[in-house]
């Protein structure tokens, strides 16, 4: 945190399983890792203000370009008081999909993402996301979404996906504005462009990076594309914006 404070630009933090291994959600909410104070609000559109207990918000660093931070552990057994209804609800959901004694094991699962070190998005958060994307569509904004957990199978190990990644994809694919989805979690990274022209980038994790290497990158934004200039393990990428989106696929 001391190093971050030396920067002259805002720093936005997302929360993942490693935060919740060490801190409770209540602790994080009251810590400097909560950067929700940096959010932008859309005048006359109260439906775009998050009202739930999830940690998510959006901001506009320059006109016509919106970033959305999602809480992919909104549904989770990590960092939650075990006596709370939310914990019991999430544990029930997890055990319905994972009968293993060791809930971090995907062994034998038809949906291997249902492990304890993952989480998911509440319907309340997905409804909020839909409202923000509707506004961005109407105002011809481009949107980048950031989440600790990835949601697109072609860009990730299936064990590392959000529990209800299909629900998140369904919301995103019903809009024109999303150009890129950044995630972490997989440690080894990953990339794929989905059929709707959304670039899914899982950034390589510093947690498994050799001491003599690096794992970070800089994004350069242009009217027609974004460019990722990686350092160390992070791969350089060019993400062109698709000019037209296909009709939604029924799956």
TrEMBL record:
<dbReference type="InterPro" id="IPR004843">
    <property type="entry name" value="Calcineurin-like_PHP"/>
</dbReference>
<dbReference type="GO" id="GO:0047734">
    <property type="term" value="F:CDP-glycerol diphosphatase activity"/>
</dbReference>
<dbReference type="GO" id="GO:0030145">
    <property type="term" value="F:manganese ion binding"/>
</dbReference>
<dbReference type="Pfam" id="PF00149">
    <property type="entry name" value="Metallophos"/>
</dbReference>
<dbReference type="GO" id="GO:0008663">
    <property type="term" value="F:2',3'-cyclic-nucleotide 2'-phosphodiesterase activity"/>
</dbReference>
<feature type="domain" description="Calcineurin-like phosphoesterase">
    <location>
        <begin position="4"/>
        <end position="187"/>
    </location>
</feature>
<dbReference type="GO" id="GO:0047631">
    <property type="term" value="F:ADP-ribose diphosphatase activity"/>
</dbReference>
<protein>
    <submittedName>
        <fullName>Manganese-dependent ADP-ribose/CDP-alcohol diphosphatase</fullName>
    </submittedName>
</protein>
<dbReference type="InterPro" id="IPR029052">
    <property type="entry name" value="Metallo-depent_PP-like"/>
</dbReference>
């Amino acid at each position: 945190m001391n190093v971050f404070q030396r920067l002259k630009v805002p720093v936005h933090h997302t929360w993942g399983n490693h935060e919740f291994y060490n801190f409770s959600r209540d602790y994080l909410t009251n810590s400097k890792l909560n950067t929700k104070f940096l959010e932008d609000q859309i005048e006359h559109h109260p439906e775009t203000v998050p009202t739930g207990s999830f940690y998510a918000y959006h901001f506009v660093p320059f006109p016509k370009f919106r970033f959305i931070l999602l809480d992919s552990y909104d549904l989770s057994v990590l960092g939650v008081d075990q006596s709370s209804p939310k914990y019991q609800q999430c544990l029930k959901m997890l055990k319905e999909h994972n009968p293993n004694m060791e809930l971090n094991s995907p062994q034998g699962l038809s949906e291997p993402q249902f492990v304890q070190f993952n989480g998911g998005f509440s319907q309340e958060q997905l409804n909020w996301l839909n409202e923000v994307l509707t506004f961005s569509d109407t105002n011809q904004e481009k949107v980048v979404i950031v989440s600790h957990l990835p949601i697109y199978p072609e860009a990730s190990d299936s064990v590392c996906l959000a529990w209800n990644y299909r629900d998140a994809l369904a919301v995103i694919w019903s809009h024109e504005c999303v150009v890129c989805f950044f995630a972490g979690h997989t440690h080894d990274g990953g990339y794929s462009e989905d059929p709707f022209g959304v670039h899914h980038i899982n950034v390589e994790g510093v947690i498994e990076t050799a001491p003599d290497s690096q794992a970070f990158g800089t994004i350069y934004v242009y009217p027609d594309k974004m460019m990722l200039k990686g350092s160390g393990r992070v791969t350089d990428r060019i993400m062109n914006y698709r000019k037209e989106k296909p009709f939604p696929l029924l799956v």
